[in-house]
Amino acid sequence: MTNNKLIYVVDDEKHIRELLKNYLEKEGYNVCTYNDGLQALNAFHIHPCDMLIIDVMMPNMDGFSLCKSVRSVSDIPIIIISAKNDEIDRILGLEFGSDDYIAKPFSPRELVVRVRNMFRRLNPLPTPNNSLDILSYKDIRIFQKNRSLFINDDEIKLTYKEFELINLLLNNLNIAFSREKIIENIWGYDYIGDTRQVDDLVKRVRKKLLLNNSEVKIDTIWGYGYKINK
């Protein structure tokens, strides 16, 4: 089994780099490893990868700074793995643009599942109905084929999970999605983790809608989940 996806694994712990490289290569991915953020960033500018898996605490450049720097020029999937599992650290990681945050110690098999799910959702099977490519609602237009979102005439940068969330809710107006259903649709049925990731994701999307003065609002269904009303 092989594919053309290139993944950078960035961690100052050698055994973690080697462990993840071994598991990911068995899945057919190409993997390059780096022991600090600056080294990985320099490599990215020369040969951009398709996904970043990064630790937080590293010499020369920490994971948050690396995440922010890459996100300013690219929308590739970014997964943070860290021994720091406080809520503020998870929120920081998401605010800097990561798509997922996994606490150490973690299962390498779980990480491989998340990687596979991210790539699968980034490259969905083509739909024969081209009329479904553009979705418009109030001041938002979504172009499915190139995964772009515009508020009025301004394109809004979204991570791939942010795009999946707003796309899901806009395609199902007035339908309330539980946190578990959002996880099934965005992370996948085999996601291992809690529902806090959903709340963090909604906060990020709401912030971008608010900053761009969008008429579209994501409503909270207390004790259940979220929806967008017509």
UniProtKB/TrEMBL annotation:
Record domain Response regulatory: where: 6-119
Source superkingdom: Bacteria
Organism this protein belongs to: Tepidibacter hydrothermalis
DNA-binding segment(s): 132-230
Positions bearing 4-aspartylphosphate: 55
Record flagged with keyword Lyase: no
Keywords per UniProt: DNA-binding, Phosphoprotein, Transcription, Transcription regulation, Two-component regulatory system
SUPFAM superfamilies tied to this protein: C-terminal effector domain of the bipartite response regulators, CheY-like
Name of the protein in question: Stage 0 sporulation protein A homolog
Residue stretches making up the OmpR/PhoB-type domain: 132-230
Role description: May play the central regulatory role in sporulation. It may be an element of the effector pathway responsible for the activation of sporulation genes in response to nutritional stress. Spo0A may act in concert with spo0H (a sigma factor) to control the expression of some genes that are critical to the sporulation process.
InterPro entries, alphabetized: CheY-like_superfamily, OmpR/PhoB-type_DNA-bd, Sig_transdc_resp-reg_C-effctor, Sig_transdc_resp-reg_receiver, WalR-like, WH-like_DNA-bd_sf
PANTHER family per the UniProt record, alphabetical: PHOSPHATE REGULON TRANSCRIPTIONAL REGULATORY PROTEIN PHOB, REGULATOR OF RPOS
